[in-house]
Structure formats: C-alpha cells, structure tokens
Amino acid sequence: MSFLGQALVAIEKAVKVPLFGCRMCGQCILHETGLVCPMNCPKNLRNGPCGGVLVDGNCEVYPDRPCVWVRAWEGSQRLPVWKDHIVRLQRPVDWRLQGTSSWTNLASGRDRQAPVGWNGAGADGSAATIP
Amino acid sequence: MNGAVSSPRSHLEALLRAGEFAVTAEMQPTSGADPDEVRRLAAPLEGKVDAANCTDNPAARPHLSSLAAGRLVIEAGVEPIVQLACRDRNRLALQADLLGAAALGARNVLLLTGDHVSAGDHPEAKPIFDLDSLHLLRVARVLRDEGMYLSGRALSSRPSYFVGAVENPFAPPHDFRPIRLAKKVEAGAEFIQTQLCFNVPRLKKFMARVEQMGLLERLFILVSVYVTRSARALRYLRDVVPGIDVPDELMARLDGIPPARQAEEGFRLALETVAAVREIRGVSGVHLISIHGQDAILRLVEAAGLLPRPVIASSGVSLAN
In this complex, is the C-beta atom of B58 within 8 Å of any C-beta atom belonging to chain A? Predict the structure, then answer.
C-alpha cells in the first residue's frame, strides 16, 4: 500500500473508531444504518436485526448492551437525511476489504463491486429479474 | 410474484397457492446416527401436517444434519422444510448444501441467520455469519432462477425449491420488523414462519402494517404456535430463549393453575392461539411446535379442526423418492 493509502487508513481509523466503534470493514454503510456500525453486531448483520433481540431491546449475545440494530433503526429515524436508506438491501460483505480505507474504496468504486450472481440478480433494483 | 407463473415447487406451495390454510410442524432434532430414529418421529405426521421442518443445529447445538433429516423425512412419507442457518457455514458451504438439499428431494428450504454460538453447548466455536439471512435468500433464488452460483459460474441444472424465511414480529424494534420483512421479500422469500406467537395483539399490529405495505400479495405467512406443558416451561422460554415475548397476563394465567392441570391449560392456550391467528387477514397457516414429541401436535391438529389435510391432486407435486 502506498504511503498515502496507509495514511488514509490511519486517519479513518483515528476518526471512526472512537466515534462509531468502526471495525474497518472497508465498505462503509454508516449513513444507511443510522450512523451505527452494523459490524458491531455479533452476527455481522447488515440488513437488520436478528430475531433474538430481547424484550428490552438489548442484544441476545451481550444482554447488557442495546442491540446494534435497535440503535441503528432509532438513529436512522432521527437523521435529517438518508432516513429511508435503511430499507436498502445490502450486498454480502467482501471480506478482502477488511482493514482497508473505505474512503479509498468509495473513491475507486471498489466498495460497490459485488459478485456477478448478486449483480445479475439486480441487487440494486436496477435490472431486477427476481423476485 | 414471479413464482406465480410457474408451477408450484412443493406440496406446501401448491396448498398455499390454492388458498388452503396450511399446517406445518417442527420435527424434533435427533442426536444420533440411526436413520430409523428420524423416520419413526416423522411417520406419525404423514397426512396430519403438510410439511415438517428439519432444523439446522437448533439453539446452536449440533444434531443430525437438516439435509440428512430431510431425506429421511421424505422416506417416512412427509414433505420436509429443510432449514439452513448462516451460523455454521460460509457462502461456499451454504450453496453446496442448497444444491445438496434439492438433489436429495427437498422442495422447501427455510433460510435463517441462526442463534449465536454463545447460546449453545459449544460457545468456544467460531461463529461464521459470512452471509446474513437476506443474502442467503437471494443466493438461493440466484441458484434457482438464474442457474448460477453467486460467483456467476453456471450450474449444470437448477435446484427446485420453495424459498422460506423467518421473521419475529414480537421483538424490538417493532416498527422496523415489517420493513425487514419487505427486505426479505425483495431478497427472495416466498413464505415465512414467524417466531412463536404468545402475543396475538402484537401480531395483529404487525399484520396490519404488512398488509398496508402490500406484502400479502407477495408472500405467505405462517404463524408459529407452541404447545406449552407447564408454567415452568413457559417461564423458561420467556427468560432463557432470546426473542420470545410472553405477556404477563399469559404467564399469570398458567401460574394460576395447579401443576397437574397446567399441561391441559397449555394445550387450551395453543388451541385458542390457532383459532385467533386463523382469523387474522393474511395469515396463511400455522407452524406447530412442541418440544415433547408429536403427540401434542397431532392432538392439536385434530382439536383445531384442521383435519383432514387437503390433497391437491392437480399440482403435479409428489415426494421425490
């Protein structure tokens, strides 16, 4: 990685880890999840909460912490913009991007690359053949 | 629904499309390698339920695999719903098992995230969760409808199955649950089974919203009903199993009955729940669960007036043997 690339990773980490508990997945969707990092969900869910959310809204794995997706839903409804982005179907995680800068990947379009099968199925709603 | 133009892929799908009120049941998971154990558990369900769920390491505890159980259930004359969870396999293994399940004759699959490993008896295991349940739904549809793997590589033949999912209308964030269901439909779900229903008013609110969103035309909804044997069992579900909402008045109702008669009261409660959810617009069937064997399920099907089960002669769907 270039010096600039390394510097961007360091800056992104320094900003987003304390602010959002960012896990540096390299394919950031914070603005679509109410500014709550979905990679903090113990099941890495990127499309909404599992069925095990406790009655008080806490996590089944860490019962003393609120469910990441309860916070994401509430956060998304408080945002002045991007409110409805939480309904978007998110593609599978590309685990190769772990630890890279999502800013670099956003600029290059690398974070929008999905497997052929996923795109062929019109995952972005553009050329949906299914369902 | 795209599927509406093709012929039904399973007996369950044929019944639902014909507007019949469907009845499915949960198979008890087994912890051995004896195939007869599974066949013996499945056989009494023949003709009494429309399909039976073969669970995938429920509660994050290993059991005989759902694919193998599915095949054995077919041999016992019952149509399986083979469950696959994202907890234990990555996307390669999940696709392999979707094809494997279809090749072994499964015509219904139910795709879910799965309980976390920390809930089970191997909490030290590596949780996989490579895909989430919505990704898996989409992948199952890509295999079936596009004839390719997620990578784009072509299949030599396409699997044929009716694609199911789960949803929990009873867990927070309640306002988000119908939206999540819509996302599951977009991902490819054709039917869902809900989490256990003890809170009918909550289910009604969920269903009203689901109808408002126009989802009833796009998928079938089966509501899970549990046959409680005792107040203790119900309290255990409420306190230990994540995501189960048992209203206080229900707990009090069972607590107020002498232990010797609690099983009868629990059965009555299940019967009332089946009757209540049947009245809700958009509920296409029930999924019956009892952890103490099928006797309670068989009794419930009979007492609820759900017998005889309808036969769809023209569907052309038969159990693959």
Answer: no
